[in-house]
Predict the structure.
Amino acid sequence: MKIILAGYNLDSEVIDSLKKNEPDRQDITPETLSAAYARISRDPRPVNELRATARAEVERARRSNQNIIFKMGHHSVAEHAVFNFDLIGLSRLAIEEVEHFRLCSYTEKSQRYITLDGDYVLPEEIKQAGLERIFAETIEAQNRAYRYFYERLREYIFKKYEKQAANPKNHAILDGWAKEDARYVVSLATKGQLGMTVNARNLELMIRRFAAKKNAEIQELVRHLYELAKKVAPSIILFTDPSPYEAEMMDKVGKQALNFISRSKKKEKTKAKPEEIRLIEHTEDGDEFIIAGLLFSTAGMPFKEALKEVKRWSQKKKLELVKRVFEHMEFYDSPPREFELAYLTYELIVSASCFAQLKRHRMMTLLVQPYDPSLGVTVPPSIKEIKEQKKFMEIIRQTEKTWRQLQKKVGPAADYILTNAHRRRVVVKANVRELYHLSRLREDATAQWEIRQVSGEMSAIARKVFPITAALLGGKDAYPALYQKLFGRAPKMLPPALFAE
């Protein structure tokens, strides 16, 4: 066996220094890796020799990339070329669009840990419509309210948790709680930043999809992404023009759907309060499907036979087998892939603050509607506790008045003015394995309170329909108690405590 580290990410300033000191070098590009790996299937030479050849013949490597990707259709070779981007000064609304791409990696500026300083994006659509003044006035009102609520909440939280506040090591946590609730009044135009790592295949997809968007901020972003990537890797960023499928398909589907609905749907006389979390569908006999998967993987049985066998078992027998899965599990472990055989589909109504956490779980299926003021807003409990709900709702009413005025002139771009408290409908489809990841992270005491509440209710629903395989769903902090209940003893490793002693 021979294992070689073929390459790794370098800071662009290191690369620029390398180019400056060796200006004649042509091999400072990720294209050589994709070209070398593309040759593995048909060239018997060792991979490190293929890489050396690609570095020595960069133009040939580029032609090879283009032929393999464009003519032969093997787009996967572009996944070996990886880019890192600093995305600075994007609005929260645009960041949601970026992080929709599930096979990329993101680390984002947190509104929970960093005090906001009032910076925001002024959309080009707002400028063109001559609506800068009303937009800016509303943003400033929101930002003043943020600063006011932050100071009030900080004082309240430090007093409420006086014992924990006595230790300076806990101040960052308590301060973060004040920030995360104050941010509910700031807009989706608020500037953020993130680091993004993306391979060339997914970058090309992102560029192509974004090229079909009508949003001016997204159009500016896509120009920068394309120019920067094309400059260093011209042979692997090829299909960047939006196709009619990407540019027009969803609009046409929407128009046709609305046409059908208008013909068949009767007007509702009363409008009931919508459920915030409800189960739409789930795998029938999901526990049995997962257990049958375990038999398939370990007992050498065809799946159909394994499922018949499991259906003959008692609940006690099923639980005993699943306990063997859980027996050595610690709070950081994921259940095996067999737990992907059962799924649940939920419909949620969540705030932008909550969605900012939910969207990070990109392996789940997430379908979203635009933010909709008719769904109301989420008011943090702490705002009610300090008796500032009236002031909070005054900002919301001012925001929605501005939103209605903007919507008449700029359509969807009006959503920039909406706050983190405004809500949207989301459909979430997740298998049980994904739910374990969600619950461990988002039900934990360190998680933001709204996503903790939402993920907790999702787990409670899952435990009702899958009582055996979902038995250990819960946050890291709850894991020892859950394990104790199932096994009568504590797990070997305990999760870290929330507060310092």
